[in-house]
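Teaching assistant's notes for section 4

Start the section by putting this record on the projector. Ask students to predict, before seeing the second block, whether Diaminopimelate decarboxylase will look compact or extended. Collect guesses on the board.
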Amino acid sequence: MHLYGTQTIENGHLTIGGIDTVELAKQYGTPLFVYDTSLIRKRGRGFKDTFEKLGVTAQVAYASKAFACVAAYQLAAQENLSLDVVSGGELYTAIKAGFPEERIHFHGNNKSIAELELAFDTKIGCIVVDNFHEITLLKEISEARKQKMSILLRVTPGIEAHTHDFITTGQADSKFGFDLNNGQTDEAFAQVKDHEFLCLLGLHCHIGSQIFETDGFALAARKVMKKMGEWKQAHGFECSVLNLGGGFGIRYTEEDKPLEPHVYVEEMIKSVQAEAEAVKLTMPEIWIEPGRSLVGDAGTSLYTVGSHKSVPGIREYIAVDGGMSDNIRPALYDAKYEAIIANKADKEKDATYTVAGKLCESGDKLIIDAALQQAEAGDILAIFCTGAYGYSMASNYNRVPRPAVVFAEAGEHQLVIKRESYEDIVANDLPLTLKKG
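Reveal the predicted structure now:
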């Protein structure tokens, strides 16, 4: 049985951060997300410490779309991480969390005027510019305010990561960024390089998700650095920042073979240093954006087992009190997970069940044919590695309240997001005032 971070089995129960998960389920109810914050800290330090050890100036920005809340942002701030936000809502949450504005980077392919104005009001550290429409808006806003703003240009380098393979042609068809190969990036550069208020720092790229190799990052670094070299030679302009994005993989099942954070960083640095020498550039500051790799395997979902259905010769079902409303990834991406019965964690996994959710959809299955201990109504099911894109993609489908979230570390636990109530669900509803025709 693979355990993550501080997880242990004590007195037959799964523990996280020194806390019995069965007791957490009793205290806070289920469904419940439990985050091992020690593991989040360890992952963040694995990236940051490698840059520092190798003497490379860098920013490690938490890609917070993976899981965003006030406490998560405050944890990132404690670890001296930067922050990648992709909406006005995430930016507002960062402000409420007291996150250092100068370390906030704002992404997105269709930022509204209100969102951009909030970024200027907040004086964030950088806006990652995605398209020509955004350049126009940024010029108008910055000129009207006579306010400077640092920017990166997001580019699509023509590299797409598919699990272990890297394809160098397909990525041109993307909703994000300026194409590096058809002249769009050069046109964007021409529009911003001499602007009075927009301060171009460099380029950003992102090649995919759940990446278990370093080859794609190396290839992307070479292609983007080559463009930077062309700009220096042709225009005397030298970029100070290269952002290589995120996408670092984690282990969901035994099929996944992720690398440790330091391996990704070391290989990135080698590639950027080699290319800087080749194109005669000063070594740029390297920015990266881990999201899933910081919080994914630090999160565990706890559910209470309810009904059991046997389809003789075909399948055994158990149903839990959550489902696609708190984890849409299995239905959306065919995502795979592993699980245990938390209150029988020391028992042999001698049963196979398909774990069904309670939502009124036939596709609401969290795990198909999961190896588990014998399950009974009232047992606590723990599904591992749900920390990324579980709560952040949760919904009120079927008017199901979103779960509570707890942080656990060193024998202490804290509620960081309250469980929604039925009253919360109807809070924004308004009564009908139209007259019957």
